[in-house]
Structures are given as structure tokens and as C-alpha cells.
Amino acid sequence: MKTIRLIGLAFIACFTLAARPPEHDRWVGSWATSQQIPEPRNALPEAALTDATLRQTVRLSLGGARVRILLSNAFGTEPLRIDSAHVARAAGGAAVTPGTDHALTFDGAPDVRIPAGASYWSDPVAIQVPALSSVTISLHLPAAPKGQTSHPGSRATSYLVPGNHVADPTLPGARAVEHWFQIAGVAVAAPSPAARSIVTLGDSITDGHGATTDGNDRWPDLLANRLHANRATATVGVLNHGIGGNRVLSDGLGPNMLARFDRDVLAQPGVRYLIVLEGINDLGTLTREAPVSAAAHAALVARMIGAYRQVIARAHAAGIKVYGATILPDGGSGYYHPDAQNEADRAAVNAWIRAAGHFDAVIDFDALMRDPGAPTRLRKEYDSGDGLHPSPVGYRAMAGAIPLGLFR
After folding, report:
1. For residues 4 and 295, what is the distance between their CA atoms, to the nearest angstrom?
2. By CB neighbour count within 10 A (0-12 exposed, 13-18 middle, 19+ buried), where does 10 fall?
3. What does residue 348 show for φ and ψ, rounded to 5 degrees?
4. CA–centroid distance for 379 within its chain
5. Phi/psi of residue 77, each to 5°?
6. What is the phi/psi pair of residue 377, to 5°?
7. Residue 1 reports pLDDT greater than 90
8. Could you give the CA distance from residue 31 to residue 138 in angstroms, rounded to a whole number?
9. What's the CA gap between 198 and 357, in Å, rounded?
10. Do 154 and 125 meet the contact criterion of CB atoms below 8 Å apart?
11. Is 66 helix (H, G, I), strand (E, B) or coil?
């Protein structure tokens, strides 16, 4: 009887081991960008993307030993074929660091066909990528996309050459362009159980208008630097989902905030926090061409607040904490030329953002960035020169003012 019991126990143990599901990596977003249709001046000619290699550089916020790359055909009208793709550590310009180049696969194959309107993750690839390091993503397109999917405001240089050169260590004679095409994200296998990410959702101020090309000095970049340097938050990544000209309620440059919320926030791997800084373009475009009635002003404010409520509810349902950032002053903007009623609208929206019971916390960029002597305008030292967008010094101030305790 004892022998039978031992055999039975051994059988149960073996069955338990066999039935246990295999362990999988937990993926956390390390870099991301929002997708849009490029304006004609920012699109590439079809001939330039036919039998062409695109090498694009992105800076990661989290490091790891395994990565996956997200390619996007979000605005394509037909399937997009990538017939070879590589990832490597960047070495400056179009060069890659020797010994770090790896071919990407998709379901075990070297090529992928991405359906119209869809995105596609690569298979995991083993490559050591430190936090705050840069990688290159090289794609060969045998035929140009039918409908380009892009992020024009990359503030990073990409390189384009004819032919398939994804495995080349550098790209002599490459054409330089300051846009990203068909890439949407990089995720790393979580370097620790505590690894998580922040999405920064916004417009050109989050996208980095006024920042330095290839300088990685947008405020989300600088926030990533601070998080990494702080032991308690060193495993928190930052995903920049700003789009220049973007609005809360209406499409403009890119889909409106509510329309892109699922793709740019809820679908991001490992996201636990959301910072919302958006609305200045809604306020400014209301009267840019002509005055409107007091009722129209009031209606816009009410609709913006309703949209913020939607964002908070949808994020909370997914277990994401939402931090509301107040809208920066734009009284010196020659583009929007705001008047007293526009300023009253901004003040009303900011009052709602600051009020208790709405966002989980408030990041008061308005109070930080306004000129004490002229509070409807940006401080001179923080102004890029257009009265609307911060300078690199201003972006540094914004990143430095965010309490890191919000992400512990």
C-alpha cells in the first residue's frame, strides 16, 4: 500500500509539473510614439520608399536583456510588407555598435505583412539595452506603404537609402529626415517585478516643439532621466504620446485625444500611470479665425471637461492612475492671439483640473511656467520665442517639478 501511495504521489507531482503553464516574460514599454498621417510636406515620395531601407533611432527609458519592436500600419489603406528588419545599439548617426546587430523575426519568419489599420509586435530578441540608451530600428520596404503611418515630430534623425541595407554597419550617402515612419514602440522584458511605465499624453508641448533635434531634451525625456537616477523609481519607463497640434475634441494633426486613447494609452504594455497635458489647441483654435459667442466659449469648456472625465474613467477602469497637468499660459502667442475670453476659458479648465475629486493628483505646470509679472504669458527664460512652446530650459523646469513620489 505504501508503494502504491508513493507512486500515486509521484504521478500527481509529475502531472502538476506538466500542467503548469510555461513562464513568460512580462513586457513593459520603454519607448513609444503616437501614429498619424503625415502632412504632405512631411511625407516621403512613394519612389523613396520603394525598395528602401529606413534606419530610425529611438532612445529607450527602461533597459533590459530582451526587446520587442512594434511596427505600425495604423493609417495604411492596404497591407504593409516589411521583408527584413534589424535592431541594434546605436553608435551615432546612421552607424550601429559592432556586435549588437540582430535580425528581427515575426512569428519565426523574417518578414511580416501588417493588415491595414493594424500594428504588429516582433518576436522577442535577446539584446542588452541599458536604460537611457539608443537603438536603431532598420526596416526594408520592398514597396512603398499605401498610406504612410508616421510621427513627423520625431526630433530625431532617421536615414533612408535605396535597397536592402538593414544589416549594414552604417549607411553612407543616406538621406536624413527628421521623422519616424511605421514604428510605434519598443518593449523590454521587465528588468524587475516592479517595472512599469508612464504615458505622457499631449500635444506639441509634450511632443517637444522647441526641443533640440537628437538632444532628447523634451520634458518626458528629462523626466525619464530623473526617474532612472532615483533608486525608488529606476524601473519606471516613460512613453511619449504627444502629437504636435493635437486636440482633446477634434482631429487636427493626428486623431483627437479621445479617439487615440485606446491605442496610445490602454494598449501600452506595463502602463500604470498617465499624465494628461492637452487642451491649449482646443482653446486657441476656437477663435483663431474669428470671434465666437459667449455660449460657444462656455460650451467648449464644458466639452473639454467632459472629455477629461472620460479619460479618467477609462484609465481607472484599467487600473491606471491619472495625473492632470494644468494648461500653460499662451498670452504671448502670435499664432493664437488669445484675448480675455480665451484666457478665462483656460482659467476655467485649469480650475477644474486643480479641483479635488477629479484627477488622482495635479501637476501645476501653469503655476510653474507663468511669468509672475504677467501671468497670462510664459516666463521669458522658459519661452522658446513663440509665446506658446517652452524652450529646452523650460522643458527642464517642467520635468524637474514633477514629484517622483507619484510613481512609487
Report:
1. 84
2. exposed
3. -70, -45
4. 27
5. -100, -5
6. -125, 155
7. no
8. 16
9. 21
10. no
11. strand
| DSSP class of 18 | H
Residue 238 is classified by DSSP as: E
The residue to which cell 515630430 is assigned: 153
**DSSP 8-state secondary structure symbol assigned to residue 390:** B
| The residue to which cell 541595407 is assigned | 165
Q: What is the C-alpha separation between 129 and 140, in angstroms, rounded?
A: 23
Three-class DSSP category at 173: coil
- Phi-psi label, residue 157: left if phi above 0, alpha if psi -120 to 50, beta otherwise: beta
Range 164-192 burial, b when 16+ CB lie within 10 A, else e: bbbebeebeebeebebbbbbbbbbbbbbe
What was the pLDDT predicted at 23? 46
- How does pLDDT run across 247-277, given as a tens digit for each residue? 999 998 899 999 999 999 999 999 999 999 9
Contact status, residue 349 vs residue 327, Cβ threshold 8 Å: yes
Half-sphere exposure for 47 (CA within 13 Å, toward CB): 0
* Neighbouring-strand partners of residue 57: 136
Residues 108, 189: Cα–Cα separation, whole Å: 18
Banded model confidence at residue 20, pLDDT cuts 50, 70, 90: very low
Q: Is the pLDDT of residue 19 over 60?
A: no
Euclidean distance between the first and final Cα of the chain, in Å? 56
Type and span of the H or E element at 336 = none
CA angle 209, 361, 365 (to 5 degrees): 30
Alpha carbon of 298 to those of 143, 293, 358, 376: distances in Å? Answer: 49, 9, 20, 19
Q: Percentages helix, strand, coil for the chain, rounded to the nearest 5?
A: 30, 30, 40
Q: Could you tell me which residues come within 8 angstroms of residue 238 by beta carbon, excluding any fewer than 6 positions away? A: 61, 197, 198, 200, 220, 221, 223, 224, 227
H or E stretch at 312: helix 294-317
3-state secondary structure of 215: coil
Locus of grid cell 523634451: 218
Q: Is the pLDDT of residue 8 over 70?
A: no
The grid coordinates of residue 319 equal 487600473
**Partners of 275 in the β-ladder:** 200, 323
User: Which residue do the cell numbers 520665442 mark?
Assistant: 385
Looking only at the bridges linking them, the beta strands covering 321-325 and 271-277 are parallel
pLDDT confidence of residue 343:
98
Question: Cα-atom radius of gyration of the chain, to the nearest Å?
Answer: 23
